[in-house]
Amino acid sequence: MQICRTKQEIRALTRRWRAEGRSIGFAPTMGYLHEGHLALVRRARAENDAVVVSIFVNPTQFGPNEDFDSYPRDPERDLLLLRAEGADAVFLPDAAEMYAPHAQTFVEAERLSRILIGRLRPGHFRGVATVVTKLFNIVAPDAAYFGEKDYQQLTVIRRMVADLDVPVRIVGVPTVREPDGLAMSSRNVRLSPEDRAAAPVLCRALDAAEARAARGPVSVEALRRLIRETLEASPRGRDPRVDVRAADDLSPLRGALRRPAVALISMRFGDVLLIDQRVIRPADQENAP
Ligand SMILES: Nc1ncnc2c1ncn2[C@@H]1O[C@H](COP(=O)(O)OP(=O)(O)OP(=O)(O)O)[C@@H](O)[C@H]1O
Ligand SMILES: CC(C)(CO)[C@@H](O)C(=O)[O-]
Ligand code: BAL
After folding, report:
1. Which residue of 40, 61, 208, 259 pairs with 145 in a disulfide if CB–CB is 3.0 to 4.6 A?
2. What is the predicted ipTM?
3. Is 39 in the pocket of ligand 1 (CB under 6 A)?
4. What homologous superfamily does CATH list for 2-173?
């Protein structure tokens, strides 16, 4: 496994692979890897001749009062895990390598980046779209793998790639969960034992909404209410946010659930913001092909 710390090194490597006719799968991450990240790497491994993973805690997607400094990091362990998964190269730049000192060009999916998590974290999706564009330009992969857990991020990246004709196939990978249902996240290690015990309420609220929709006709408002009530019953989480939107483009939905929707939720436990998501189909589409 090659470890590249400069753009020049990783560019030279992927250029050589392309010249040899090898397809390249790419999984961008912020490190502190868990089974969710490894699911991206395995999918990339299964679908491509060569696999590149990046590890970069991107400062520009964190707000001034967010957890950039306390974001968990363990690059040595990450490299061991990636070697075991058969990754071919890891791109591990530092911030000075990634960003020119006076950068003033940004990528932003305007409407999508201002709703939901974008309202809680102003500037976040501009930081994500910009760094992902840079990473795509540096690595030039055929396909890139992103977790459905960060559903709004995945939607922003699909939009950006379509709008700017970026020649990369975007693949969404289902959320990997702990045995009690909590979506795996690097930030879970920062939960207190009490908050960790309470956090699966996010998944339970989504299970309840999915089960309700499977039983028969239901309105989007009723689903939203059911999720909110489940979250509000939690003794520990704060500031629950719930939305149910069109699964393909996150446009608002009202009235009867007639098309696939996605429930997007977030809640704070201590100073940790947890998110989760579930695609919910109307009952008559449950068994559709
Ligand atoms: N549980 C998961 N299942 C599948 N993919 C995941 C999971 N968690 C993260 N990913 C994906 O891994 C990629 C890198 O995410 P990142 O490094 O931010 O990890 P994270 O665990 O989501 O961290 P955070 O605590 O910031 O949410 C993203 O595409 C993300 O959606
Ligand atoms: C896509 C990403 C690596 C960009 O920094 C990050 O937002 C993440 O880890 O999901
Ligand atoms: N997993 C999304 C990256 C972030 O929370 O900043």
Report:
1. 40
2. 0.97
3. yes
4. HUPs (3.40.50.620)
